[in-house]
Write a structure and sequence with these properties.
4 helices; globular; single chain; 2 strands
């Protein structure tokens, strides 16, 4: 049986999913918009788009990824790397995390965000 906290979390997730996706989303739309971020094997900082979308998300993320690459100081700066796990990522993934963190902080009420990096095994 779910705990009170777990049940509350599930209700919030269901509401969030309903706001984001609506109540009648087609599988092909859902697949396009949940494909994740994939880097090109030819150009290490280029994000790839499959299945016709979502360019409205991909384009600004790509722009901020390049901005982080071009205008931030060294990736070895100890003050900017907060988690030991981030040091194990390659540069492209670290820049992607920084770009996403920046975008999410801008959209948050309190200037904070939390990200999770899922690595393929």
């Amino acid at each position: 049986t779910p705990t009170k906290h777990g049940s509350n979390f599930l209700c919030k997730m269901e509401r969030a999913l309903s706001v984001i996706w609506g109540t009648d989303v087609h599988d092909d739309v859902f697949q396009r918009w949940t494909q994740g971020f994939v880097f090109s094997t030819v150009e290490p900082l280029a994000l790839l788009q499959y299945s016709g979308g979502p360019c409205a998300v991909l384009a600004p993320v790509q722009a901020y990824l390049l901005q982080k690459h071009l205008y931030e100081s060294s990736l070895e700066d100890e003050d900017k790397i907060e988690s030991e796990n981030w040091r194990k990522c390659d540069v492209s993934k670290l820049l992607l995390l920084r770009a996403l963190a920046y975008i999410l902080k801008q959209a948050s009420n309190d200037g904070s965000c939390k990200l999770t990096l899922l690595c393929d095994k």
